[in-house]
Amino acid sequence: xxxxxxxxxxxxxxxxxxxxxxxxxxxxxxxxxxxxxxxxxxxxxxxxxxxxxxxxxxxxxxxxxxxxxxxxxxxxxxxxxxxxxxxxxxxxxxxxxxxxxxxxxxxxxxxxxxxxxxxxxxxxxxxxxxxxxxxxxxxxxxxxxxxxxxxxxxxxxxxxxxxxxxxxxxxxxxxxxxxxxxxxxxxxxxxxxxxxxxxxxxxxxxxxxxxxxxxxxxxxxxxxxxxxxxxxxxxxxxxxxxxxxxxxxxxxxxxxxxxxxxxxxxxxxxxxxxxxxxxxxxxxxxxxxxxxxxxxxxxxxxxxxxxxxxxxxxxxxxxxxxxxxxxxxxxxxxxxxxxxxxxxxxxxxxxxxxxxxxxxxxxxxxxxxxxxxxxxxxxxxxxxxxxxxxxxxxxxxxxxxxxxxxxxxxxxxxxxxxxxxxxxxxxxxxxxxxxxxxxxxxxxxxxxxxxxxxxxxxxxxxxxxxxxxxx
Length: 471
Description:
6-stranded mixed beta sheet, alpha/beta
């Protein structure tokens, strides 16, 4: 690799550690700029693998992610293989279904397949002549001073590689980030939430979707929930989110069916009782972790992006979108600062840390909203009020979900604006209610009703009721 860097003259070498979604997209960004790009992935090439290991929670692609894909010419290819979801479809215990739109008419998020998206991005990165994909390379160590990395191979051999910039895109349990922990003034926190997740499949029925496909289906049950996202093969991927202690209470097939009959009765005939009993015990419930850290860089040699910098729980559908936005934010800063890594990396940390911390907190909050608040009449009322005000004053009042999902408003700015709007709207509703009470009272005092006129009809009504009751 050192030889290739020398032969390229001025071209700097960028080593992207991790060939997942963010790593593969990053390779495209850096290759497009003309850097010599080397991608190192621990796993085998998933494009050739018979079985792809790793997470399979369906992904919700929204505006931020689409903008990053658009920058490398991949948006339309990915969108064409996604399924639009225009609203949440809430399933009550009784089986009633009620849609809650995500935004204005025409606004939607896309259900996309994680594995297919990763394959497409790797294939796109491979089209650049200045990019090399290296699979079965496990990072063992690297130097923040020299940029020298040591990789292990499946045969037990080691390989040393030199790079001008190391980009850590190797996930929530990043090997690159471990080096950061040796440096002073590096803040790091890792939080496992007490809930796990389990995936189930809802098969197609007679070659068609078993439910309406253009929705993100949610069965909110206050302390837990199940969701379902549509797939191109007409199936739904259902994900049950629940406290681990609740998962552990269910130990037999009969208990699985009993549990679903109690909380998700309408889902049993759609998934199939036999499939439920079988798939529930196929894999244990998986954990979900939230990671925050700062800074995202060391000197001018290394930077973290994606889950390596900010793993978030999946409840806002922004994990991938935030990771993709990392790529485009870094690219924008490179434009501003003429690709000078010594100034680009600190600026990237300054700009991105508050935003990624904000979306990590929002993802935690949205779990409570999805599993409980959507059952609240007040929540539904406030959604309608927010949407009405947004329609009347589109630049003044913007719902939080709209800012996060359908714009590139910085995450922390969206949160600050949301809190301000919430205070203003709640005070307005309170003043309106107080005004209505005082106004009604004033009218009653000013124009008191004739009691005699009210008494006669009341007596007639009572007499009719008494006649009906008397045998």
